[in-house]
Redox protein
Amino acid sequence: MKAQIKWVDGAMFLGESGSGHTIVMDGPEEAGGRNMGVRPMETVLIGLGGCASYDVVSILKKGRQDVRDVRTVLEAERADSEPKVFTRIHVHFVVSGKQLKEAQVKRAVELSAEKYCSASIMLGRGGVEITHDYEIIDVD
């Protein structure tokens, strides 16, 4: 896996993934930015959410669950002093579907957290306290 970062100006950077996709990262005005893109640490949090969400959807589909939507809400706390690393992250899954089995949703969340989500496992091994929970919404 590769990535390339190019400085644009001020606190703005373009990040290009090895697959050729680009994101804009920028800082707040007080840091020389124009607030035109996500912050680098926000991209880490979004990456964790994307990784975990992919796992949960994939596991539920393999379990033949009629999952219709998954929304993942992440809340993170950072250290007060430099380096302002994440200290705690809570991942909340809102799983919607038809007659979803709670045991399978619970197991999908656990498997993501403990076995499959590289981002979550990497951050957890780095000392970040990561917690997970879920809610199920039944749709017709």
Q: What stands out?
A: The first helix runs from residue 40 to 62.
